[in-house]
Amino acid sequence: MSDTSIKLTVNGEVVSRAVEPRLLLSDFLRQDLGLTGTHVGCEHGVCGACTVLIDGRSARACLTFAAQIDGSSVETVEGLAKESGALTPLQEAFRDSHGLQCGFCTPGFLMVANEYLRAGGSADRQEIREAISGNICRCTGYETIVDAIAKVAGKAQDDRR
Amino acid sequence: MKPAAFDLLRPDSLEEALQALTAHQEADIKALAGGQSLIPMMNFRVAQPSVLVDLERIPDLRGIEEDGDWISIRPMTRHFEVKASPVVAKHLPLVREAYEHVAHFTIRNRGTLGGNLSHADPASEMPCVMNALDADFVLQNASSVRTVPAREFYLGPFTTAIEPDELLVQIRIPKAQADERFAFEEVSLRKGDFAMSAVAVRLAFDGDVCRSAGIALAGVAGTPVHAEAAEAELVGQPVNPDAAARAASSMIETIVFEGSANITAEYRRHVTRVLIERAIIRAVASPRI
Ligand SMILES: Cc1cc2nc3c(=O)[nH]c(=O)nc-3n(C[C@H](O)[C@H](O)[C@H](O)COP(=O)(O)OP(=O)(O)OC[C@H]3O[C@@H](n4cnc5c(N)ncnc54)[C@H](O)[C@@H]3O)c2cc1C
Ligand code: FES
Ligand code: FES
Q1: In angstroms, how far is CA A123 from the centroid of its own chain?
Q2: Does this complex have an ipTM over 0.90?
Q3: What is the B79 CA–ligand 1 centroid distance (Å)?
Q4: Considering the domain A4-80, what is its CATH architecture?
Q5: φ/ψ (deg, to 5) at B214
Q6: CATH 3.30.390.50 residue ranges in chain B?
Q7: Ranges in chain B annotated CATH 3.30.43.10
Q8: What pTM value is reported for the model?
Q9: A149 Cβ contact partners less than 8 Å away, ≥ 6 residues apart
Q10: Measured between alpha carbons, how far is A153 from A22 in angstroms, rounded to an integer?
């Protein structure tokens, strides 16, 4: 089974590798690139812990072969905070609202919330719940996650006024 | 690594993809669309294809077009594109409405309509909608093209009329007519999950009288169920709540309901009756297109 050459951008850096076709994007990020912020829970698409952005849209890294996305641009949770370690407003809001406990699900929630906020998502709790409906959290009960996203969405709405 | 090893082909044209399917017939070759159903099965090693043909790079397999009285959707059009399409919203209100129940944002970003219809999950919404709308599926191999009506396409759970050397290349759906009404109803564990039971309803009227009906169910059998008993109760008369209740009651008598992990047979029977009745009543009251 022959390897496939791929070239993609990960958090703004160009990466070229030869990979086995069966290598999942989640394993590529974690094992080949050492980006272990992308978590793997179920590895069959159900939990959302592995969510990353591919060309700006959220995707399950465990349901994507690295070879499939040759030429794409990938963003992971490591790409959010500044090199200085400064957190994004969304990450700050998760911390302030207790939007995480064990943190296992958090990278996935941050990535879907990012997609939602970039698309101009509103602070409406029902809409936020729908946006995160594909992600499972076993700790928080979701309310605090919705609080965190609503806080950032509400601020963005005010700023636009 | 979770999936078994395989070779990946990434053709740039439909011809190349179809030739590859013909050339690798013994090799358990499979098409790869959005991967949102196939890759979980490969991760479990329930599926172990030795060759995958990725359809991603084939421009002919994408897009939504008007074609006279039909809307043609190419299979690699992603769920989110179909859901957001103004053409679909205008001409295929039932597809648009049912998309509210198909998977989650993240899955819709990569999953495709063609992959969804080919996968043939018995609890999937779109196969049921295509049944109710009498859509046509265009299948092609290296030497010929044929059209299979949705009602003849689904042969069993995860089994369709697509031959191993064929691809689904086009889905043709009749445009909604001015005298038609639609509704879709579903019960699932969470929004975006597969249906425990779902019903798609198309009713065409001549004044007050129902001229024809297309009703289909998902989640209640191994394939979408074409609800002939319910249709028979409605056609030829005005559709009022009594008629809707009769249609629902007679329909559930024709099905042997089964339980599954999250739902008993009894409950599935009950919600199916309620959903059929509700969808018919709501369709009658739905706005004209
Ligand atoms: C968490 C989760 C929730 C989901 N919820 C729902 C839901 O509520 N409702 C629902 O309907 N679906 C749901 N899905 C499935 C989703 O809709 C998939 O996108 C879809 O079933 C498969 O589409 P795909 O493009 O990903 O196809 P793939 O997974 O790539 O392929 C599926 C199958 O179709 C074959 N195939 C693909 N394209 C063609 C073609 N053009 N010609 C011939 N064969 C082809 C493949 O060989 C494979 O056997 C869910 C999935 C996940 C992971
Ligand atoms: S690890 Fe990918 S969805 Fe659970
Ligand atoms: S914080 Fe523990 S799973 Fe969400």
Answers
A1: 19
A2: yes
A3: 10
A4: Roll (3.10)
A5: -130, 110
A6: 180-285
A7: 7-54
A8: 0.97
A9: A90, A93, A99, A113, A116, A117, A121, A128, A131, A132
A10: 38
The dihedral region occupied by B77, where left means phi > 0, alpha psi between -120 and 50, and beta the remainder, is: beta
Per-residue model confidence as pLDDT tens digits over B108-151:
999 999 999 999 999 999 999 999 999 999 999 999 999 999 99
- Confidence (pLDDT) at B84: 98
- The domain spans of chain A are 4-80, 89-160
- Chain A within 8 Å of B191 (Cβ-Cβ)? yes
Question: What's the pLDDT tens digit per position in B195-234?
Answer: 999 999 999 999 999 999 999 999 999 999 999 999 999 9
Fold: same for A4-80 and A89-160: no
Other beta carbons within 10 angstroms of residue B70's beta carbon come to 17
CB contact burial B13-23 (16+ within 10 A = b; e otherwise): ebeebbebbee
Q: At the top level of CATH, which class does the domain A89-160 belong to? A: mainly alpha
Specify the residue with its C-alpha closest to ligand 1, atom 1: A46
Instruction: Note whether A134 contacts B105, CB cutoff 8 Å.
Output: yes
CATH number of the structural domain B7-54: 3.30.43.10
Class of the CATH-defined domain B180-285: alpha beta
Q: Of A21, A59, A131, which is closest to B6 when you measure between CB atoms?
A: A21
Q: Which residues have any ligand 2 atom within 6 Å of their CB?
A: A 40-43, 45-50, 60, 62
Q: Does B7 touch chain A (CB under 8 A)?
A: yes
CATH number of the domain located at residue range(s) B59-174 in this protein = 3.30.465.10
Residue, of A35 and B261, whose pLDDT is higher: A35
Distance from CA of A53 to the nearest CA of B (A): 9
| Contact state of A134 with B106 under an 8 Å Cβ cutoff | yes
In angstroms, what separates the C-alpha of A161 from chain B's closest C-alpha?
26
Report the gap between the CA of A158 and the closest CA in chain B (Å).
Answer: 25
Could you tell me if A58 lies within 8 Å of chain B, comparing CB atoms?
yes
Digit-coded pLDDT (tens) for A43-86 = 999 999 999 999 999 999 999 999 999 999 999 999 999 888 89
